[in-house]
Design brief:
By secondary structure, the chain is mainly alpha-helical. Helices cover 72% and strands 0% of the residues.
């Protein structure tokens, strides 16, 4: 046997083969665009579109609310049509919506355009996850960890590019950054075009059903009294109480996202004596830790039972993070800085653990023939958290140190409740469907 090439080594390390690697490229390019736009959206609407602060608030709130429908809609369609062309269409819709923002400063039109874009963003997220689930097979958790690493690197590249461009400080720069965001979606669509259609449990089930054979001479005709074959109904997540309850618990556990975007920065500058320059460094720390350790953390979700057991260390990370934030309000600047770093580290560990656990459980709890619809409903957890999370975090800040202690304890308790929800049957196996799409 010849010496393995770097391509072979890369293929062995990244699940999903060629299509898995291409989808990682899609994720990376997509997040570069998101980094460009995320860093400048408010500035664009302020200086290029001429909106007031109140109008920008309404714009983001309305578009965010409309976007909540994206995950279930995308997942539902993915069970009925081929996934690859659907993902390409969604990427193109996002590109058109981004470019359309350049054509108007009317608030009503901007509301409609940003709502379409938000719908596409949320749908693309669940469709990309579904593609990865199907193409990576039993190695889906490792693939998700690599994908999250690519996401964070992409965000960092886009954010740094935006920061460099903004030194120009002109309206033209904001428009070019928006064009860059649109181009990232077009590039993502082109890369997706080169991917193959992944295996689908729905289509496998449909094609594996034998067609009725023609009667041969001498065969006895079937009796009129013979029972007709039973009609099977596709499972739906909207009637699955356990999956809906699981999704509701996920909306709570995803609060770590709002901790970094809202809670930690606001708390650091309003309630602690730490230097304000520390805040961006805490966000950099979060990004660096995810890039370095998300892949090794994949082992905590390697199997359904491992994922369930990992809910205990997740609870501990939430408790530690809440306690550290509470302690940061007391003491000298150096003590506040140390406890804020500890809190950022703890919540980053919680973020990585939860991402791994959530990926595995959301897949194995879903019936293989309706995986798209189920993952679409699971996508509601993040969408709802983005709408409700800011309120929960500002309430915790208003309550002071006790608010953070309560938040940490509440998140830890939710971990325990979720562990009970996905309890085993007594034989060491989770009470989930025995076959997942990765086994086809």
């Amino acid at each position: 046997m010849g010496k393995p090439t770097w391509r072979t080594a890369l293929s062995d390390r990244i699940p999903g083969g060629r299509d898995g690697r291409r989808m990682l490229t899609v994720t990376f390019v997509d997040r570069i665009g998101s980094g460009l736009w995320g860093a400048t959206a408010t500035l664009y609407f302020t200086y290029a579109a001429g909106l007031s602060t109140a109008e920008i608030g309404v714009l983001l709130a309305v578009s965010g609310s409309v976007g909540i429908a994206g995950p279930p809609l995308g997942g539902l369609l993915a069970d009925r049509v081929p996934l690859r062309p659907l993902l390409i269409i969604v990427q193109l819709v996002r590109a058109v919506a981004s470019l359309a923002l350049l054509t108007t400063t009317d608030l009503g039109l901007l509301l409609a355009i940003t709502s379409v874009g938000s719908l596409g963003d949320r749908a693309a997220s669940v469709l990309t996850k579904l593609y990865a689930t199907r193409v990576a097979g039993p190695d889906r958790v490792r693939y998700q960890a690599i994908s999250r690493t690519a996401m964070n690197v992409g965000w960092a590249v886009g954010g740094l590019a935006a920061a460099a461009a903004l030194t120009g400080g002109t309206v033209t720069v904001y428009r070019w950054l928006l064009i860059g965001d649109a181009l990232s979606f077009l590039a993502s669509a082109l890369f997706t075009l080169g991917c193959a259609e992944p295996p689908s449990a729905t289509r496998i089930a449909a094609t594996s059903t034998p067609a009725p054979s023609e009667p041969t001479p001498g065969d006895t005709a079937p009796s009129d009294s013979a029972p007709a074959p039973e009609k099977t109904t596709a499972p739906t997540p909207w009637r699955d109480r356990r999956y809906l309850t699981y999704t509701a618990s996920e909306a709570v556990l995803f609060l770590d996202d709002s901790v970094f975007k809202i809670g930690l920065p606001l708390w650091a500058v309003t309630a602690t004596s730490a230097p304000h320059q520390l805040v961006p460094l805490l966000l950099v720390l979060n990004n660096v830790l995810v890039v370095l350790f998300q892949v090794p953390f994949a082992r905590f979700g390697a199997t359904p039972n491992t994922a369930r057991t990992s809910l205990w260390p997740l609870a501990g990370a939430f408790l530690l993070g809440g306690a550290a934030l509470a302690a940061s309000a007391v003491g000298a600047p150096w003590f506040a800085a140390v406890t804020l770093v500890l809190a950022a580290t703890a919540f980053t560990v919680a973020e990585m653990l939860h991402a791994t656990i959530s990926w595995e459980l959301s897949v194995v709890l879903a019936p293989p023939t309706a995986q798209g619809a189920y993952l679409g409903v699971h996508g509601l957890a993040q969408a709802v958290q983005r709408s409700v999370g800011p309120l929960a975090l500002t309430a915790a800040i208003a309550a002071g140190p006790l608010g953070w202690l309560g938040l940490g304890a509440g998140l830890a308790a939710m971990c325990g409740a979720q562990r009970h929800l996905v309890r085993d049957r007594g034989d060491g196996a989770l009470s989930v469907a025995p076959v997942t799409v990765s086994e086809h």
